[in-house]
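Need tokens for this chain, all 302 residues.
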Amino acid sequence: MNSNEKIKNREFNLIDEISKMLDNGGVTLGVGDDAALFGETLIAKDIMVESVHFTKSAPLLNIMRKIVTANVSDIAAMGGVAEYALLGIAIPEGYSVTAEDIVRPFNTYGLKLIGGDTTSSKSSLFLSVTIIGKKNEYVLERGGAKTGDLVYISRPVGRVRQGLEAELKGSDNYNHYLVKAEIELGDLLGKTGIATSCIDISDGLGKDASHIAKKSGVKIVIESDKVPVDKLVGIENPIEYALASGEEFALLFTVPSEKKKEFEMMSPKSIYIGRVEEGAGVVLETGTAQTDISRSGYEHTF
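Here are the structure tokens for all 302 residues:
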């Protein structure tokens, strides 16, 4: 390796290293799940940065929808109910900002915006949102999947990736910002406790399934003919493409096989896509062939 070549750090490696150094005394769940839990309270946080999560031309209302949805989705993935929000926003000179664009997405989810901070930015738009919610009767974690469980997803995936790629090429169609958090399903799973593990699709189905597999100590098999793919235009391998589509905010979760009928009566729109086996990692099964898809998705490097 050239001595001047910088070694890139990966987001999840850094998170793992940080988590090893933390004292989580008094915290029921900390780093490693979609939200932190202490007492009855769930807290989730997301940051979004111009040119990383959205383009300079994206309307502020759409950006706000996206970051609020991302946070609410994290609470839903824990089976909880989002209630309050804090907003931090750094605004560059000349950027068009209205209070309506900031507040409306919080109102969409019935959230109370209770504080935060605003500042100027010398470069680009930067946003940080913290959501505070309450736990349900059951708390969903990434680490509860068991061998023999069935894998479900709440809805088709793929269109967010295609929409973002079109935006990066100059499209002014921002419909991919309009996906909603699965608050009703999250509430159902939190009230019934029927799911053994859960995560929301923020990095991509393959990548996020790998988080469940790692935390649970299992292997997840995704059946290629069961993956629900949005209607995609001009995509040669739609399944592989959809598996890597991030910021979908669908829920991916596992249910005991003996509760299949009961669950599908509760949630008829949820879609079976695979199973949990002994082993490690995440594979896409096509016929008898299995392909590793544990890195199928997005991970920040720096």
